[in-house]
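In this section we walk through a basic example: taking a raw amino acid sequence and producing a predicted 3D structure, encoded as discrete structure tokens. The instruction is simple. Fold the sequence below.
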Amino acid sequence: MSFVTLEHRGPVGLITMNRPEALNALNDQVLRDLDAVLDQVEADDSILVAVITGAGRSFVAGADIGQMSTLTAAEGKAFGVLGNRVFLKLENLTKPTIAAVNGFALGGGCELSMACDIRVASEKAKFGQPEVGLGITPGFGGTQRLPRLVGSANAMELILTARNINAQRALEIGLVSHVYPAEEMLDRALELADAIAANAQVAVRQSKAAVRRGLQADMATGVAYESEAFGLCFATEDQKDAMAAFLKKEKLPGFKNK
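The resulting token sequence is shown next.
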């Protein structure tokens, strides 16, 4: 049985962290299952956008403390390397990703959400990096992604106090883009995914890549990435069709994604 499932919802791949009896906590097997599902999403041309959510009342409540409690320093580092490798694969997918945070997103769960391109949350969601209260640091990218998303002071407060925040506070500091009633949240996330999937996918993926690469670079290097992406789009049929339709004041029936 896989702890991570993949369901097709039209052009959207719905990934569900499916270990509800442990609040979807991340152990070696869950991470390997997620790794395999991400490979499936990347290889499946029918999937244009991926949405990640959790089964039950949790998104991901964190890494599995039962597994971590007996690790040596070398084993702890190896576990961190595994988690970071999988989350970097998620971050670097060519396809856009949305975290649909339905409940607890703590520790590794918060880190999982931050590896996605966009985060939306249920009103019941809780976010936090509680690791220092357990005698460790964040291990799956929390010290790196959180400051990039919410600024160093907000990130330091969350990490160093080990306190959780609710969805509204996550919205205020920019950790999530939208907060919805619990019963609506997943549908809204899928609607957002459909809106992305309706656009020219070469342009969508080049835009994502330019943003991701630029975040790691100085401005001059970043705009060079953008110019490269911009130019590549002019070799696509979608650019020619869409601009011709615009000039003719016609509605384009859809994109060829090539």
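Looking at the output, two observations stand out. The beta strands are 4-9, 12-17, 49-54, 58-60, 97-101, 104-106, 118-122, 126-128, 164-166, 178-180. The chain has eleven helices and ten strands. In the next section we compare this with other chains.
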